[in-house]
Amino acid sequence: MKPNILFIMADQLRADYLSCAGHPSVKTPTLDRLAAEGVRFERAFCNAPVCGPSRMSFYTGRYPASHGATYNNVPLRVDELTLGDYLRPLGYRVGLVGKTHMRADIEGMRRLGVDPESSRGVYARECGFEPFERDDGLHPDGAVDSDLPYNRYLRQHGFGGDNPWHEWANSALDDNGERVSGWYLRNAHLPARVPEPHSETAYMTDRAMDFIRETGDAPWCLHLSYIKPHWPYMAPAPYHAMYGAADVSPPNRSVAERGNAHPVVRAFRQHEESVNFSRDEVRARVIPTYMGLISQLDHHLGRLFDFLREQGQYENTLIVFTSDHGDFLGDHWLGEKEVMYEEALRIPMIARLPGGVRGRIFEQMVESVDLVPTFLELAGGDRHDHVLEGRSLLPLLKGARPPWRDAVFAEMDYAWRPARAELDAAADGARAWMVRTERWKYIEYQGFAPQLYDLESDPVEQHDLGTAAAYEAVRRMLADRLHDWLRTRRMRKTISNETVSALTGSARRRGYIFGAW
């Protein structure tokens, strides 16, 4: 029997906001138990610290420089293969419940004559997944899908309105009984109007169970992708009040780093989310709710894992839990993500392989691009090493100790952000690339000086050495490493390395005689 794959992603969940990762307050007993039954990767990194490009790297096994979807809503080229394209021919039903943040390449599909509504077209426009329930989780009143399944569900249960997602799941009642919006951070301490069993996290967990129940004994891969704890930071009771200001850890920031900031970082600090999260009263109000949303997610994962046991599928399912990126929450005087500090780049990653290693914490540096090769190897597929840029984690999960990478890479495209206008950078001149080794983190920007951090002496990244004369040789060494990496992206996708090897030097054998006397 082929093993199933449960690929769980939380949106905007920091690596250090799990109790098994050492957080002093947040309670995550289900994920702690999963880590005890499997492994936790202490140093897992996304390849782009923002939703869209990070997820496209998770789904393609390729870096943003290769797949090209460098920011949210940049279409993923129709020729890019994704997890579903690899696993479906191996007999897997590959489903999605929740978010992908993928924008379809409709123009490319039209050029190829692919109808987006056809069976083949649906896979192309849904990132290779069967959209059992796609819900990207953000539905402003002016742009909500009139047929959003979660809104239909809420109305069926008595929670009406033009946009129940907003009016119930992401709104609250203030002290005067007036409805207030979760879009505003000042309301984060209030309980969402929706009862907890009908909240987004509960609903998506139920839909995951529906997919598993419907699929039965056939092999499946389910990508269960929760929107929370991503904003709007609003939790239903009792999770809205599970934590308080006393549970909020002090921010990682200093007056010195603010006064000597890199131009790009300084521009991001002028964004509204950064200005607000730099205020202690904002952190004290929002972060307890962020933590409550994490504990709520943990509770529903417990429901899901119990369901797998009841269905007799728990011991035949690889479970991987991760997130697409972190959340600054005021660290480094920043809100949101994108800037390449550890708080945004590091992600949680827990994996439980039945019969595999148990209770271990791995220090190997792993990346988003590693999951597609892992799932493919588990399913018995080809390596596709002329396309895929990650490496399978399966040997580690089975207890082997193969030679491992000594650096990870990430990319940033801030063309859409106010910071670019503040810096007067061109739309195609707002990129950055990072290489992180055991000791060093080096970030190269278009049009600006680099950043450099010595993670050995400065693990919290407070002292930027990007222009320090004493570190010129280190910067040159890391720049060479970064440029070597950029030069070796896998662009020759249409022919395998094995085929190239077989054809090398074969021209004469095939009748092509040139240069002969």
Descriptive terms for the model:
517 residues; alpha/beta; eight-stranded mixed sheet; 17 strands; 32% helix; globular
Can you describe what's shown?
There is one protein chain. By secondary structure, this protein is α/β, with parallel strands linked by helices. 32% of the residues lie in helices and 16% in strands. The chain has 19 helices and 17 strands. It has an eight-stranded mixed sheet. A hairpin with a 2-residue loop joins strand 16 and strand 17. Helix 9 (200-215) packs parallel to helix 13 (280-310). The model has no long low-confidence stretch (mean pLDDT 97).
Produce the secondary structure layout.
Layout: E1 4-10, H1 29-37, E2 39-41, E3 44-45, H2 51-60, H3 64-67, H4 83-87, E4 93-98, H5 106-111, H6 119-125, E5 130-134, H7 149-156, H8 164-169, E6 171-173, E7 179-181, H9 200-215, E8 220-226, H10 255-259, H11 263-269, H12 272-277, H13 280-310, E9 317-323, H14 342-345, E10 346-347, E11 349-352, E12 360-362, E13 366-367, H15 371-379, H16 394-397, E14 407-413, H17 418-423, E15 431-437, E16 440-445, E17 448-454, H18 472-487, H19 497-503
Parallel strand pairs: 1-8, 1-9, 2-12, 3-13, 4-5, 4-8
Antiparallel strand pairs: 2-11, 3-10, 6-7, 9-11, 14-15, 15-16, 16-17
Helix pairs in contact: 9-13
Rg from alpha-carbon coordinates: 23 Å
Give the overall shape. Answer: globular
Query: What's the rounded overall pLDDT mean?
Result: 97
For this structure, the quaternary state is single chain
Question: Termini distance?
Answer: 60 Å
Number of helices: 19
Structural class: alpha/beta
User: Which band does the percent of strand residues land in?
Assistant: 15-25%
Largest sheet: 8 strands, mixed
Q: What is the helix content?
A: 25-40%
Spatial ordering of strands, largest sheet? 5-4-8-1-9-11-2-12
Low-confidence stretches: none
Tally the beta strands: 17
